[in-house]
Design brief:
By secondary structure, the protein is mainly α. It has seven helices and no strands.
């Protein structure tokens, strides 16, 4: 498999891990009598997966799209808006003041938006980049995204689904969260 065919293998693996978590979250929020704590725990896990993933896309994938695709600027701008909406919806779904019904609604909207975003990347953006970007640029983007997530190649991920990418170091540094998932004081 050449670089163009395999790009972006790590992002696609992360997409599969995010989708697996979305299925668990969806089951949790649609099951009658499911405890709200379970939904909050799954939303926290989703945040851990998404934070470094979205940052890596913004730092490396979308600049490549801007350079290589005719509609790259519009695509990158739309993705930035989608990322911002995903973050807002995740914040809303995790809001401790929400009722269980409010959390279910916010989570359902988040799941729909996130699935549409992932599908758009898999079905449109990735094939367009494989077709138009130079293999060297694809390899560089993939390597930088992996390095930017603070993980050594082949390093094991403990407690997370396979293919989720490195999470803790980048998330903690960029989002201002400590290792327990709470915001640090400025």
């Amino acid at each position: 498999m050449n670089a163009a065919e395999g790009f972006p293998s790590r992002l696609s693996a992360e997409h599969r891990a995010i989708e697996a978590l979305l299925r668990r979250l969806n089951r949790s929020t649609t099951r009658a009598g499911a405890p709200d704590e379970e939904a909050l725990r799954l939303l926290g896990s989703l945040r851990q997966l998404l934070a470094p993933h979205l940052l890596a896309e913004e730092a490396h994938l979308y600049p490549l799209a801007r350079r290589c695709l005719a509609a790259g600027d519009a695509l990158a701008d739309a993705a930035g808006g989608s990322h911002a909406a995903i973050r807002r919806l995740l914040d809303r779904a995790e809001d401790g003041r929400l009722s269980a019904g409010g959390r279910r609604h916010a989570t359902a909207v988040l799941v729909v938006l996130l699935r549409a975003h992932l599908r758009g990347e898999e079905e449109r953006l990735f094939p367009a980049l494989r077709a138009r970007a130079a293999p060297r640029d694809l390899r560089t983007c993939e390597r930088r995204m992996h390095e930017g997530q603070g993980r050594r190649p082949g390093a094991p991920l403990r407690g997370l689904p396979p293919g989720t990418g490195a999470i803790a170091a980048l998330r903690d540094h960029v989002s201002g969260r400590d290792t327990s998932g709470h915001h640090r004081s400025p």
